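FW: tagging you since you asked about this chain on Friday. Here's the raw sequence from the shared folder, copied in full. Didn't touch anything.
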Amino acid sequence: MRTTIRRRIVSKMALVASKNYDRWYMFAHSLGTIPAFNALQEIELTLPNYLTEEEWNALPQDFKTSAPFVPDPKDPPTTENMMPRRPPWLKDSDGVDRRKLFERFQGFVTYGSPLDKFAALWPRVVCLNRQAAVFPTKCEWVNLHDPTDPVSARLDAYKAPSNQADKVEDGKVADRIVLEPKNFASRSSLMFGVSHICYFRPRAKAPTSMPAAIVGAIVSCGRNKLSEEAAKAAMPAAESVLRALAAAVQLAAVGAALMLAAAALLLQIGQLLPHQAVIWVKAVLDVVRPGLFEILQAGGWAAMLAAAAILFVLAVLAIAISGLARIRLDARRRRERQKREAERNRLLAEIQG
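HL: got it, structure written out here
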């Protein structure tokens, strides 16, 4: 599924790039920032795999390369076990020249992006290309986030990997640069969660809003930089802290409301159950705190708060248990991977010997 979505992005990206526009941009929101980032970071050898035969043949010849970038000449990549699979009409050496592909690319704007979560939880899904310095000097990556948006955040984990083959000096290689995000706190909405879908909502009373700043920079024919205009519309650090506090208060209120609602439902279910069905519950609660079961039976606010506290403890325990299980599973997978790698190295040594 990821490959299918990414194929649509790479296909349109190659089409737009080959039209020789003065400049072109890519905007991506929420989960859409993941395949968009993947498309920008895809390696030269794999990019042709996303194209149809007609699209490949229509691609200008100077966009193609027979010597795709290889980060380690001693261990060159192969066309086996690729995702997507290598089409039979492509040569093993066919690739797309990323420097040419991004020659007129002027900006990548992400908003409401969970890329930081992917970097922490699923880093293999958002790999950084070792061929980093391929973007024009005017190209910028602007990331917009709102403290009231639970999905978005600053993207501080996307510093490009060092690569001696690029010979990067001060972030530049000749007329090309490394694309790294510049983060700006943006006023989307004060409502926690709703802010995720309001980044580019028109604001009649705010001509200097972030949407106006971003669009203004684009229609200025390149005279104004995206980052400079975004910096003018970004919220101050103090306001960002206040919005984060407001989000925390809203989240706590929603959590408390849900907890109390669940507690009320639990108490109602307990009242409907026969006495024999709750004997074991009474025994457990008496061990935790004598008299707790009687408080629950009495009803009222005391019972509601007690039930909510019980639910909170159970939720924490469930999270802790699932976290420990995940750690053990990851450790087991790591050992199995190391075992397979050792067996592979042993077989290669036997073959070479």
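FW: Residues 300-352 form the longest helix (53 residues).
HL: agreed, and The chain has eleven helices and nine strands.
FW: great, closing this out.
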